[in-house]
TrEMBL record:
GO terms for biological process: transmembrane transport. The chain crosses the membrane at residues 37-55, 97-115, 127-148, 154-174, 195-212, 252-275. PANTHER family: ALKANE SULFONATE ABC TRANSPORTER-RELATED, MEMBRANE SUBUNIT, TRANSPORT SYSTEM INTEGRAL MEMBRANE PROTEIN. PROSITE patterns: ABC_TM1. GO terms for cellular component: plasma membrane. The keyword Kinase does not apply. It is a multi-pass membrane protein. Belongs to the binding-protein-dependent transport system permease family. It comes from Carbonactinospora thermoautotrophica. It is found in: Cell membrane. Keywords: Cell membrane, Membrane, Transmembrane, Transmembrane helix, Transport. This is Putative transport system integral membrane protein. Residues 89-273 form the ABC transmembrane type-1 domain. Coiled coil: none annotated.
Length: 292
């Protein structure tokens, strides 16, 4: 059999292999998927609010230590009216998104190189795993010494927290690619970068996306750690700074409000960015997770 000579042939082969794994039956309706995605978290939130109010009602701790949901909501409305909430959320989301995108640009080729070259894996694979387990807050003092109280400090902490996670996620995904795929790709003419583009990366995509989700989580945590410590009027308000202001004022309502905002942003990114992408990829490969 003659080997394909163009990228179009390899793309057709890739689509054909995916189509073989795709189930013929139709998936759940859009309304059913929306209900499955929204209803369980909504019930969980209501349960948490009920338990929270019960604890406040029983006065297990004084109200200035454990404020009720109504007090926190009033604080949120007050901060929103002053424009603090929108500015803090925007600044933190902007920094987190830029830091995460830069981490993807660095972590993806790094993970690919570590997975493909045995010597490189032996040399820096354990270092990447060690960096991934290192708390990001440990980098903050060093970053402040290097760059002062600037955006460079915050982005450095985010990169050092997220890049190892994204690289390790891609390595794990590539390690699970069956060798048969590579042999078939070589037989059909996919070698070198063509093999990476048309065989390795598509086959490792579910593991790669899982690594990206983990990388975003590390980016967000690293950002909060940096914003809590690196505080300066030049940096502008962020959610981490808002949390620190609440601590300095001993205003527990503001502290809880800032924690809820940090949590809501994380949940929003998961529900509206990563979950649809992951569901589409899994569904395209006929995996059970794609029908959830």
């Amino acid at each position: 059999m003659a080997a394909p000579e163009s990228g179009t042939d390899l793309s057709s082969l890739e689509a054909g292999l995916d189509a073989l794994d795709t189930p013929a039956e139709a998936g759940p309706s859009r309304l059913a998927r929306l209900r499955r995605a929204v209803l369980p978290p909504l019930v969980a939130v209501l349960l948490v609010l009920a338990v929270w109010q019960l604890v406040v009602t029983l006065r297990i701790r004084p109200p200035y230590l454990i404020p009720g949901p109504a007090d926190v909501w009033a604080q949120l409305v007050h901060q929103a009216a002053q424009g603090t909430v929108a500015e803090a959320v925007w600044n933190s989301l902007r920094r987190g998104t830029l830091g995460f995108c830069a981490s993807v640009v660095i972590g993806t080729p790094l993970g690919l190189a570590v997975a493909r070259f045995r010597t490189l894996r032996t040399a820096i694979g354990p270092v990447l795993s060690g960096l991934q387990s290192l708390p990001s807050v440990a980098w903050v003092p060093a970053a402040i010494i290097w760059f002062g109280l600037s955006d460079a400090t915050i982005y450095t902490v985010v990169l050092l927290g997220a890049v190892p996670s994204i690289a390790n996620g891609l390595v794990a995904g590539l390690d699970q690619v069956p060798p048969l795929f590579l042999r078939v790709g070589r037989t059909l003419g996919a070698r070198g970068l063509a093999s990476v583009r048309h065989v390795l990366l598509p086959a490792a995509l579910p593991g790669y996306v899982a690594g990206l989700k983990q990388g975003w989580a590390f980016s967000w945590r690293s950002l909060m750690a940096a914003e809590l410590i690196a505080i300066s009027p030049d940096l502008g308000p962020g959610l981490g700074q808002l949390l620190e202001v609440g601590r300095e004022l001993s205003d527990m309502s503001l502290v809880v409000a800032a924690i809820l905002l940090i949590l809501l942003v994380g949940i929003g990114i998961e529900l509206f960015v990563f979950a649809p992408v992951e569901r589409r990829i899994l569904h395209g490969r006929g995996l059970a997770g794609g029908t959830r």
